[in-house]
Amino acid sequence: MSANGLASTASRCYGDAMGWIPDVSVIPVHDVPLTRSDEENIAVAILPDTPFTSAAVGYVSPGAVQTPHYHDRPDDGDEIIYLYRGTFRLITDGRRSEPHDTARTGPVYVAVKAGTVASIENCGTEDVAFFAVFAPMFKPGEIRYVT
Fold it and tell me: Does 116 fall in a domain?
């Protein structure tokens, strides 16, 4: 059982001198509880942390815009976002990208530095789905919303 109560399929595959990657965990994302973040205007499934990263799967509803926000991280870091379904625009520091349609162009990789205001606008007819990884680990309270 992981820290957030999820059962995982773990199998011993290898270790190293530090002992920090001894197992591989397989967690079906559809088994992770989905919660609605009204403050951020997304639905999110928080995945189990690793020693150095945090990850989540998020969804932005059709016609919705994720609340503009940035991560106040004293140790700096990045948020890596892999957008793999839907049609969306990225909004960074008030600038809107051209629409990206993953059905036509394939998934999109985005790296956002700490302190950069960003959000996702769904301009399609299905949920925009994304996978986000935080390095170093996400810390509660680091999100600052910009209204």
Answer: yes
